[in-house]
Design brief:
By secondary structure, the chain is mostly helical. It has one domain: Tetracycline Repressor, domain 2. The chain has nine helices and no strands. The protein is elongated and about 65 Å long. InterPro entries: Homeodomain-like_sf, HTH-type_TetR-like_transc_reg, HTH_TetR. It comes from Mesorhizobium retamae. It holds the Pfam family TetR_N.
């Protein structure tokens, strides 16, 4: 198959992110990406300058996709606690099985190491929390900051599922979040 003459940066970064998720962040090299996308390694070096810049660009593209997905789900979510649960369950789709989840934690490590990526994570926390807060806006018993509390419960449930990954992650998350919402209800 002949090499493509051009491929958008967006497509190259999508392929790079696929390599990161399949084989871990250290597996992303200009050579491995060249094999995967069909462009020459020299062309990729010209575009991205360094392996660190390539990895950062791929992970920033992933944050962009997560921002878009969060915005879409937040706009479509019912402005109820149930809508918040459904939103977080939807964000849990795509984690896959335990092996894929474990590899994803290596990606998180990269986000935590890089100040630019860490800042994107902090910004997403604010957007996600605000979207979840909006789902509780008409709920009298919801405490201030409920969005961040619920997001924290969600992230914790993902981690606890990872230690005992029986069943689908989405089912575990949904059960955990329903228990969380039920705990908010006045007795």
């Amino acid at each position: 198959m002949p090499r493509p003459k051009t491929l958008s940066d967006e497509k190259v970064l999508e392929i790079a992110l696929g390599l990161i998720h399949e084989r871990g962040p250290e597996a992303l090299t200009f050579e491995s990406l060249a094999r995967a996308c069909g462009l020459s390694a020299a062309t990729l070096v010209q575009r991205f300058k360094s392996k660190a810049a390539l990895k950062q660009a791929a992970l920033l593209a992933a944050w962009d996709r997560l921002d878009t997905r969060t915005e879409e789900l937040g706009a479509a979510a019912a402005k109820t606690p149930e809508g918040a649960v459904e939103m977080l369950v939807a964000l849990s789709h795509g984690y896959g099985g335990i092996e894929a989840y474990a590899e994803g934690l290596l990606v998180l490590r990269e986000d935590l190491r890089d100040p630019v990526l860490r800042a994107r994570g902090a910004a997403w926390r604010k957007r996600l929390s605000a979207a979840l807060d909006a789902c509780f806006a008409d709920t009298v018993e919801a405490p201030d900051g409920i969005g961040l509390l619920m997001a924290s419960q969600w992230q914790g449930s993902l981690l606890w599922w990872g230690f005992d990954p029986r069943g689908r992650v989405e089912d575990f998350v949904e059960s955990s979040l329903r228990q969380f919402v039920a705990a908010l209800a006045p007795r």
